[in-house]
Amino acid sequence: MVWASGWKLASAVSNAGGLGLIGAGSMYPDVLREHIQQCKAATNKPFGVNIPLMYPAIEALMNIIIEEKCPSFLQCR
What we know:
This protein has 77 residues and is an alpha/beta fold. It is built from 3 helices and 3 strands; from the N terminus they run H-E-H-E-H-E.
């Protein structure tokens, strides 16, 4: 779901009662920040970010998640 799980899907799932996840595996850090901000604007429900551990700029993504106060995140191997 790398290319399909952006803020639109994540916010729709969260608004429907699930835990919507933004798939960050294909996103540059600035794109992830934009998706988190759009998701926060589209829902007041919890959502998360899924980050692959093998991502080359994982520290940059983690910093964005912390700075944006994202409700939750998952790391996959």
